[in-house]
Design goal:
This protein has 182 residues and is α+β, with helices and mostly antiparallel strands. It is built from four helices and nine strands, in the order H-E-E-E-E-E-E-E-E-H-E-H-H. Helix content is 23%, strand content 28%. The longest helix has 13 residues. The chain is globular.
């Protein structure tokens, strides 16, 4: 697989300065093994990131209800919704937070996240937001999301400046071809 080192190098360049991470050779998928009372993740890309929490019951989210930016419903169970700047962590990125049993998927974005490396975790109520607060956590990316899917959703929403900023950043990262596979 001669293209794997090239893909890894390209991703490393794109993500340089994003967050601190440990070495790993495979961004696309990772094998997850359950054993004993914990989960071991092989070949996952690890990052230290700032996290916050949000909810559909906050004043600035009421107009969207339980709808995610992707178009489905926000999720809160073993599989949970999260929001990010899609030019940093694209739509569909799946990750786990070290020490927690849940799996998160980026399916939402927020204007306050654009231009940051923060991931916002969905909570169903204000108590969950307050309890989470702001935390710097280690995450393991199990599957990297898609800049093309992010772009396809965002391109029709550019009347908002934060969306234009994400579209422009995706455009720069993909060399003007957001539909190209990274």
């Amino acid at each position: 697989m001669a293209c794997r080192p090239l893909l890894t190098a390209l991703c490393a360049v794109m993500l340089s300065g994003l967050c601190s991470c440990s070495t790993s050779s495979n961004l696309a998928t990772a094998k997850v093994y359950k054993h004993g009372n914990g989960t071991q993740i092989d070949n996952a890309k690890r990052y230290k990131v700032r996290t916050t929490a949000y909810s559909h019951v906050e004043a600035d989210s009421l107009q969207y209800g339980l709808a995610s930016a992707e178009g489905g419903n926000l999720k809160y169970g073993n599989f949970r919704s999260a929001a990010s700047d899609w030019s940093v962590f694209p739509l569909g990125t799946i990750f786990k937070i070290e020490g927690l049993p849940y799996t998160y998927r980026i399916d939402d974005y927020g204007s306050a996240l654009v231009g940051t490396k923060t991931i916002d975790l969905y909570k169903p109520d204000m108590a969950g937001i307050k309890k989470w607060g702001v935390r710097h956590v280690n995450i393991s990316v199990l599957k990297w999301g898609s800049y093309a899917q992010s772009f396809n959703i965002l391109k029709d929403r550019t009347k908002h400046s934060h969306v234009r900023q994400m579209v422009q950043s995706i455009h720069r990262k993909t060399g003007g071809n957001a539909t190209a596979s990274l």
